[in-house]
Amino acid sequence: MPDLTKTSTTEETAAAQDEVVAGSAVSAPASTGKPRSLWGDAWRELRRNPLFVISAFLILILLLVAAFPGLFTGTNPDTGDQVNHFLGKPELTHFFQADWFGYDRTGRSIYARVVHGAGNSILVGVGVTVLVTFFGGLCGMLAGYFGGFWDSLISRLIDVFFGIPFLLGAMVVLNAFTDRTVWVVMGALAFLGWTQIARVMRGAVITTKHADYVMAARALGAGTKRILFRHILPNAVAPVIVVATISLGTYIVAESTLSYLGLGLGDGAISWGGDISDATQDIRNNPHTLFFPAGMLSITVLAFIMMGDAVREALDPKLR
Asked: Which of 12, 66, 143, 256 has the fewest C-beta atoms under 10 angstroms from its C-beta?
């Protein structure tokens, strides 16, 4: 006669092992005994990634420069120095003095203008990223979840905006404004740049809404609002964060390009793109006037691209 007690114990043990295997993807090591979420696991991977550490350090410095330019220079960026009024060469006599980067053709400190120009360029990039992430993410979530008429309407609207060249469309929009402030430039870029985020969010929501936990929440009577913001959004936002982080550098470049062409920030506003445009007149004999604003622009864009790559690797298990 078979030992029923032994058989029952064996079946219980096998079931327990199956539960452990099934939960191994979200469980923490045995030493902690606590489950680790996707975001906790991603943060753990980010801290171990040198690319993230370097980019985060650069972005922190750039944000400090943009928010508190007075900590880095006490020179007025709009005041010309008559003693060095024509392209004074860079000098390293004082690390944080006005003459460290030299002067432009009107005697203005290039170092002071680079420091104060960071505020407008980074503000435009961050502001546009926030606007397109909010509006594009909302449109993509509605299209992906409800489908049908809303999906067709929003998808066709996305196709229309995708057919407009980004910079050309921004030039046309900004040309209609006589006073191009930071907020006007930000609104013009956001008006044309929300489509990529919307398309990414739509695809992520379509994939997520058929998951078992969403079906279970719907079967238990959860409302649409709760399903969208409690179950779908937290699990579909990861690719949007990656795209938004990388796109931030793109918007900074777009603002600088428009300022270089004379269609960006208006007169009186300091921008790296505007300084690059002014420096092209003296690039052959005095390349330092172009090197420093262009170098800061390149470093800023590179830092955000590196950050986006690190976030993408942390949130995508296939890339680890």
From this structure: 12
Who's near 205: CB < 8 A, 6+ residues apart?
Answer: 140, 141, 143, 144, 145, 232, 236
CB 246 within 8 A of CB 236: no
SS3 103: strand
Computed over every residue of the chain, the mean pLDDT equals: 80
Q: Read off the pTM.
A: 0.80
For the record, the structure tokens of 49 come out as 């990634």
Q: What is the pLDDT of residue 97?
A: 53
Structural domain boundaries in the chain: 39-319
Superfamily of domain 39-319: MetI-like (1.10.3720.10)
DSSP 235-303: HH-HHHHHHHHHHHHHHHHHHHHHHHTT-SS-TT---HHHHHHHHGGGTTT-THHHHHHHHHHHHHHHH
Residue 6 has pLDDT above 70, yes or no: no
